[in-house]
Amino acid sequence: MSGDHRRKNSVEASSSRSTNADHHHPQPNPQPLSRYESQKRRDWNTFGQYLKNQTPPVSMSHCQFNHVLDFLRYLDQFGKTKVHLHGCVFFGQPDPPAPCTCPLRQAWGSLDALIGRLRAAYEEHGGAPETNPFGNGAIRVYLREVKECQAKARGIPYKKKKKRRNNQLKAISDEAKGLKQLTS
User: What is the DSSP annotation of the chain?
Assistant: First the structure.
């Protein structure tokens, strides 16, 4: 019986200690990160590790757009998108009938999303928007070239959507009103 009594007192003591400790240092209950936030954190850590592995290592404060471009090219080796070369017989065919030796690359959309996440992470980690290497014009040019190259290789043109002018919108609205009156 005395063993049970000691155990009970020990449990009560540890429970009151944890209650007192919690009372003095409340532990916030962190919300789980969204899928986007988790991916952004992983991307940021991966890019940071890439910079550390450079010879010589590059600190984030010394990171320039050329490091970002090198990182994007480095990622191509892990890509899963077949991009046909100009000399390939399947160049320009959306659904080639047979395999070929053309390289696998990162898809344009994946790179574009990655840059968006890294651009946001840079500023969240205290970087100024004016010095953000992920927002540099050279990065946008590179992404546009990747997009066009991949589109040509697959035979799928990316067409810019034309912006509608106010007059066109008004004409469409007026036409819709006219149709509504006819059906009423």
Answer: -HHHHHHHHHHHHHHHHHHHHHHHSPPP-PPPPPHHHHHHHHHHHHHHHHHHTSSS---GGG--HHHHHHHHHHHGGG--EE---TTSTTTT-SS-SS---PPEE--HHHHHHHHHHHHHHHHHTT--GGG-GGG-HHHHHHHHHHHHHHHHHHT----PPPPPPHHHHHHHHHHHHHHHHHH-
- d(CA 156, CA 92) in angstroms, rounded, equals 8
How is residue 154 written in tokens?
């697959």
CA distance 19 to 126: 37
Residue-wise pLDDT for 134-152, tens only, equals 999 999 999 999 999 999 8
Residue 24, pLDDT score: 57
43-60 pLDDT, tens digit each = 999 999 999 999 999 999
Q: What is the pTM of this model?
A: 0.68
